[in-house]
Specification:
Length: 71
């Protein structure tokens, strides 16, 4: 396995974890809103975390495409 392949594989694993985390956050927020009429503050904190994770995912996908373009 070349260093580039290793790096891409590690990025893929991190992307997988982050995407699952983001999906679970969204599901949790929706569940809590339906169940408890969650306060807006708590809901907005979860949405901020979802946005932070989405930005991190985009950065990793950009890095991965840059690695592909170097080859």
């Amino acid at each position: 396995m070349t260093p580039q392949e290793y790096l891409i594989s590690s990025i893929d694993l991190e992307l997988y974890d982050l995407k699952n985390y983001r999906t679970n956050l969204k599901r949790f927020a929706l569940f809590e809103i339906r169940k408890n009429n969650m306060f807006a503050k708590k809901y907005y904190r979860i949405l901020e975390e979802v946005e932070r994770v989405s930005i991190e995912i985009n950065a990793l996908e950009t890095r991965k495409s840059d690695i592909f373009n170097l080859n």
